[in-house]
Amino acid sequence: MTSSAPRPQKVTMACLLAGVGSLVVLISFTVMLADWVPAELRTQVEQVIDEPPLSTYDLQTSQVLEWLRLGLMAGAAIAVAAVILAVYAARRHRGARIGLTVVSGVSSLAFVPAGLTGLLPAAMAVGCVILLWSRESNEWFNPEKAARRAEREQATEAANAAPPAHAATEQAPPEQQPPAYEPRPADVPFGSPQPPPYARRPPYAGAQPYAAVPPPARTTRLPGTVLAAVLTAAIISGLVALVAAIVVAGYAASPGDLGRELLSQPTLEDNPQIEDLGWSAETLGRAVVYTMAALLVLSVAALGAALLMLRRSNTARIVLVVLAGIAIVVSAIATIAGIPTIAAAVAVIVLVFRPSANAYFRSRPKAAGQHE
User: Is residue 225 within 8 Å of 233, Cβ to Cβ?
Assistant: First the structure.
């Protein structure tokens, strides 16, 4: 099987299931987060925590709503990652297939507790895994193994079709069997003048003079698109990491001041969503610092992935694209304040998939000692 083999229908179907399903989940979760918290959801949460077995844990409605909000944000981030992995899997990326399998498996387990409404998404996730690891899919993602197996099968069929060599010898009569040893006739008749040693054997007719084959040209120059993506990601990630580190350090120094300072702001002083949640200054401070800690980790990861792209790492490019998608979702929740981050993340995704960037990542030089 060659690298230009067409994509199997099972791989296409699996990527469509994962991509479309994740996109629907992303839109649903984003709409729910944009209108947080509706009154009917708060009523449902109160009813659930007042009934056993949750009634024994003395849970607060505001605490459960916060957990639910964080779960929706995590689900939206996973949905973005699934969409990106589905695109890469459709482009024959083995690591993306493994990542999409993991995401689909985790999603199926997460949808099962939702009851009847979660059975269809869970079944779609399981079907995606089955299609991704079918025989046709394995042969498409691993053409080398498929070629070796085809060669072994052809050799086995040829061996089975050929008659045994000893069968004809056993059936032939004794007088027709060839002698056990027959000397090869001499190249020069006996008594003839012997030719010089170099003239005894003619040169090989198919011999050709050795010509060194030049190695294929590789793109070693860093294209401007990759450099622009690295600089954009590094600047945005560095700024976010700096702000997040300052907030986390300030909260560690005085945990109670952060929430009180936030509630004193005009935009949050009379915010109806804060009043519906019933958060105190301490609860608001904890929620903000947890969010900032998560942003700090993601920003450091994005900065590391951007720097690794300078070493022509395609894995770093995938990680950066996934993190850029997560940044788009998180920034969309922040509405106007997140517009610069959304623009930067979209620019990074576009730049790393330009033709010059694709050629740069495909022309990765081989390690020392590795033969062509």
Answer: no
